[in-house]
Design brief:
It is a single chain. By secondary structure, this protein is an alpha+beta fold. 32% of the residues lie in helices and 28% in strands. The protein has 7 helices and 17 strands. A 5-stranded antiparallel beta sheet has the order 7-6-8-16-17. Strand 3 and strand 4 form a beta hairpin. Helix 1 runs antiparallel to helix 2 and helix 6 packs across helix 7. It is globular and about 55 Å long. The chain binds cobalt (II) ion. Cobalt (II) ion binds next to loops.
Length: 299
């Protein structure tokens, strides 16, 4: 007997997916030498809000050897340069139904690297069906990249999503090692093959601008209540220092976040950087594992 698929409001996921895909496409065309990172992120976030949706997590832009989780701080002056490889990663939710998607802009001569990530994603999507062993997906990603002369980042994985939850099981590694279990009908999953010219491993490095909180935030009494309320409005989803600073000022944001971190009430997501000098590309889609076919929400 087949297990009952979990109840999923597909129309809300479709709406989140449509908004996320549009925001992603616009961002990729906006990325040019001399453009400020923060302008691209603000455009993404303003668009999502103008569509009546919410951020599933702060929009991020990770450049060259930075694979993921780079986000602009309150006074971020960084601009894109000729030759850069810039990954845009964004998440939208409609009533908690999340679409997570990423793409890479190439301001240099990295077409083959981008193609390795893009083709690995398509090879993985082609395998998605109930009963598919997750190990086979990791093998397809690794094999596709190897054929093009690149390797995947082994310690970044695709993942399941659930209402108001950006990462849940199953974990979908970009290599067969460490993959277990199989896909089941009714799962909503994200596949995100990172292709690299480096070691294939990332480590945390640099100042975190993105934070997570538990759904029940235990804040010390002396932390400004307005900041606590703003974090609670995110319903456990990640938030940026920049959005706190926009509402409460940079100094107040710095102080409140430091106090919350020290109390263990929130946690930081620092940038994830290749352990060797490298260039990294990433493409990501969110998809539904249907009985007979896969529905990609973020095309
Ligand atoms: Co993701």
């Amino acid at each position: 007997m087949l297990p009952l698929p979990m109840r999923v409001d597909l129309d809300k996921y479709r709406e989140a997916g449509r908004i996320a895909a549009t925001a992603r496409r616009q961002a990729i065309t906006q990325i040019r030498p001399g453009v400020k990172y923060v302008d691209v992120l603000d455009t993404i976030e303003d668009f999502i809000h103008a569509q009546g949706a919410e951020l599933a997590f702060p929009a991020q832009v990770s450049v060259n050897g930075v694979a993921a989780h780079d986000c602009c701080g309150p006074d971020d002056l960084r601009t894109f340069a000729e030759g850069d490889v810039a990954k845009v990663d964004l998440g939208v939710h409609v009533d908690g139904c999340i679409a997570d998607t990423a793409a890479t802009a190439d301001l240099g001569d990295h077409a083959a690297l981008l193609e390795a990530s893009r083709q690995a994603l398509e090879a993985a999507i082609a395998l998605v069906k109930p009963g598919r062993r997750i190990k086979e997906i990791g093998a397809a990603i690794q094999g596709t990249m190897a054929a093009l002369g690149f390797k995947p980042v082994s310690n970044l994985t695709g993942h399941g999503i659930a209402p108001f939850t950006i990462h849940c099981s199953p974990s979908i590694p970009n290599v067969p090692e460490g993959a277990s279990g199989e896909l089941k009908e009714g799962m909503m999953i994200c596949i995100e093959p990172f292709a690299t010219t480096g070691s294939g491993y990332v480590a945390e490095a640099g100042k975190a601008e993105v934070f997570g909180a538990r759904r029940k935030l235990k804040a010390p009494k002396h932390v400004e209540q307005g900041v606590v309320d703003q974090i609670l409005e995110r319903r456990g989803l990640p938030f940026s220092r920049r959005e706190i600073a926009r509402k409460h000022g940079t100094a107040a944001a710095e102080k409140a976040l430091k106090d919350l971190l020290r109390a263990g009430a929130i946690f930081a997501y620092p940038p994830l950087v290749e352990t060797k000098p490298a260039t990294v590309a990433q493409f990501e889609h969110t998809m539904y594992v249907g009985a007979d076919d896969v529905e990609v929400m973020t095309r």
